[in-house]
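Many introductory courses stop at the sequence. We go one step further.
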Amino acid sequence: MIPFNVPPVIGTEEDYIKDAISKRKICGDGEYTKKCNAWLEDKTESPKVLLTTSCTHATEMAALLCEIKPGDEVIMPSFTFVSTADAFVLRGATVVFVDIRPDTMNIDETKIEAAITEKTKAIVPVHYAGVACEMDTIMDIARRHNLWVVEDAAQGVMSYYKGKALGTIGDFGCYSFHETKNYSMGEGGAILIKNQDLAEEAEIIREKGTNRAKFFRGQIDKYTWVNAGSSYLPSELNAAYLYAQLEQADKIFDDRMNTWNCYYKAFEGLKEAGKVELPTIPEGCSHNAHMFYLKCKDLEERTNLIRYAKKNGVEMVFHYIPLHSSPAGKKYGRFSGEDIYTTRESERLVRLPLYYGLTESDRNKVIEIIKTYFDNK
């Protein structure tokens, strides 16, 4: 079976983990955590980046920094992972879902303004598949209505919008380094902070509400509890694993992009024949080959394709069940406007195997099986 995902391994991860252990510093904010933070700051040109235990926790930190409170409303797409909503629901906010664009599967920027009320506090664009939302429009809306913008860039590391790294355009950006992402630490993430004045508050939240970071920098002679926070600091062992991959980020990027491009070229004939739809990359967007997906005619065809591929040794998956149709989505949120594309498009989308190290022979097998399925039809 060709798996849908294999976590990336460069080869130096074990050496770095052993090195971290030998330094007797494994709890976090040691040498490798700092190296990861610095690498991300340099690569994204973000004023402040802090490694976290997950992208979920990075988003929770953003919600705390936005001072989201019960009764507030937060606008986001329904086509996203549950963590996007959970971070704000935990603060007592109501999630307001809006429809997506069928071309990119991203939030429809033209539907956001109609969803704004006097209770709205933030907009959360989700950069699906590492392809940027229309951020100029979203930032203009946010400025005019005095709203926070929290970019869910879980899938967007090494992706850009008009030359700007995803996660650096809004007030906060949130990255994921889960094992399914391009660069992994097993479980982990990062928060990107645009306003340097909020960096110290972010450090406090991340360190259980204490000013411990200032203490270790020698800025104070003892640290204490100064605000509400939690434990969002990842293990140094996880950071060591991640840093090995960040050092080889371009190699991983090129490998994945090669697969993405091969898929696209291979399936252009099916697209021209009207049998599938392929991903759209808008002008000004530079993606990171996080995923490759096809859109089938409908849910029935997608189900049959997945079943056929599995029978022939290829694992393909789909996601997400739109949040507004879930039990928690109905409890904690509402849909603004009409669901024209969210449900329909989510039911047609299927993701193909794409990971660092996918062999040419396996990639060709995936292509052959998909072409055979549609040829037989």
